[in-house]
Amino acid sequence: DTEVTQTPKHLVMGMTNKKSLKCEQHMGHRAMYWYKQKAKKPPELMFVYSYEKLSINESVPSRFSPECPNSSLLNLHLHALQPEDSALYLCASSLRQGGNYGYTFGSGTRLTVV
Amino acid sequence: KQEVTQIPAALSVPEGENLVLNCSFTDSAIYNLQWFRQDPGKGLTSLLLIQSSQREQTSGRLNASLDKSSGRSTLYIAASQPGDSATYLCAVNPNSGGYQKVTFGTGTKLQVIP
User: Fold this and answer.
1) Nearest to residue B51, comparing CAs of A102, A38, A52?
2) Beta carbons of A103 and B91 less than 8 Å apart
3) CB A10, CB A110: distance < 8 Å
4) Strands B103-104 and B86-94: what pairing?
5) pLDDT at position A1, please?
6) Is any Cβ of chain A less than 8 angstroms from the Cβ of B32?
7) Residues of A whose CB is below 8 A from B93
8) B39 φ, ψ (degrees, to nearest 5)
9) What is the pLDDT of residues B55-96, one digit of tens each?
10) Burial class for B40, CB neighbours closer than 10 Å (0-12, 13-18, 19+)
């Protein structure tokens, strides 16, 4: 298995909703990442997990809450989002933190906040 | 601070043409450089990964070269096809003792006309 799987592919949520994005990989990668991408822009790093521990938080608002329950699974919990949070959310993984052997990205979740 | 620029920003070519996409970076202290393609609204698909010690990598019709000293990488696509239409991103992975995040280029949007 050489894929990073993200669910759902599309999500529409209201500003008072609570939802979660899920990311899964079975490549034995021990670093996992959340990125946010706005239209016509490159991805922006949000969080890095290394060996299931939060390693990097790029000053992301607390309405985004990451979780790494095990080495294969990464969640992003969403609560009280704003319309400007609408974007493509990408999950990525690498063998170890730092991407010495490159990064594998998922197909993304298109999030719309209404 | 690493800056990564891709020129041109957009490119339209007839099917069958050979083409070159450029990626320039300001800090030559890199660990590796990875080329991705991104279809509209989708995730990033890895094309080629070049380690800093390598000069080029090839996969099918794709060839990527790396010249660290001049801060440049090129992605050569032979015999372009309409299915190659996508946005191409280069990502520069820094060489450092501690973790530093990947810097993505600004992207080149390619359209191959049948």
Assistant:
1) A102
2) yes
3) yes
4) antiparallel
5) 74
6) yes
7) 98-100
8) -85, 155
9) 999 999 999 999 999 999 999 999 999 999 999 999 999 876
10) exposed
